[in-house]
Amino acid sequence: MERQEESLSARPALETEGLRFLHITVGSLLATYGWYIVFSCILLYVVFQKLSARLRALRQGQLDRAAAAVEPDVVVKRQEALAAARLKMQEELNAQVEKHKEKLKQLEEEKRRQKIEMWDSMQEGKSYKGNAKKPQEEDSPGPSTSSVLRRKSDRKPLRGGGYNPLSGEGGGACSWRPGRRGPSSGG
Fold first, then answer.
1. 3-class state of residue 143 by DSSP
2. Does residue 118 contact residue 128 with C-beta atoms inside 8 Å?
3. Global pTM value
């Protein structure tokens, strides 16, 4: 019995000694290289995820190619669907072109009508600029202040709203340039 008690008391001492050694070893290892271990584990996880996704896509592509090679009907159906989609898009494009041509014809007809109206008004001796765009009222004998204000507001501004003379842009030939350096040439 004494032997059993000695072995029991000696065993926990050995286990605690082993645990203490393991704790010190692992603790110092983690204290020294802990962040490296964490980052390498994260890096390995990300690389594994990327590679597994690529392998799955590669396997799926191989299966699709094998299925397509075995089934030529699928290839023919795909090509027919593609041709039908192209034909539909071409028809839509042709319809848009026809609408655009019709609009251009209407605009051209409107311009031609305005030119005829201007010619007729010139033949009658009237001012064609005011009549072609909007008819004036013949009731008022003289220009009223509201019509003068309306005419001024109808005019376009000389420059766009974004014009800034200090920016140096948009001036054309009116830009300032510094003079030459050095001595003046001449005699």
1. coil
2. yes
3. 0.31
Q: How far apart are CA 46 and CA 52, in angstroms?
A: 10
Going from the C-alpha of 4 to that of each of 9, 16, 18, the distances in angstroms are: 9, 18, 21
Alpha carbon distance, N-terminus to C-terminus of the chain: 130
Q: Alpha-carbon distance 69 to 62, whole Å?
A: 10
Residues sharing a CB contact under 8 Å with residue 118, sequence separation 6 or more, in sequence order: 128, 131, 132
Q: How many helices (H) and strands (E) does the chain have?
A: 4, 0
SS3 content of the chain, % helix, strand, coil (to 5): 75, 0, 25
Across the range 44-72, mean pLDDT stands at 87
Model confidence at 135, pLDDT cuts 50, 70, 90, reads very low
DSSP string, 57-126: HHHHHHHHHHHHHH-HHHHHHHHHHHHHHHHHHHHHHHHHHHHHHHHHHHHHHHHHHHHHHHHHHHHHT-
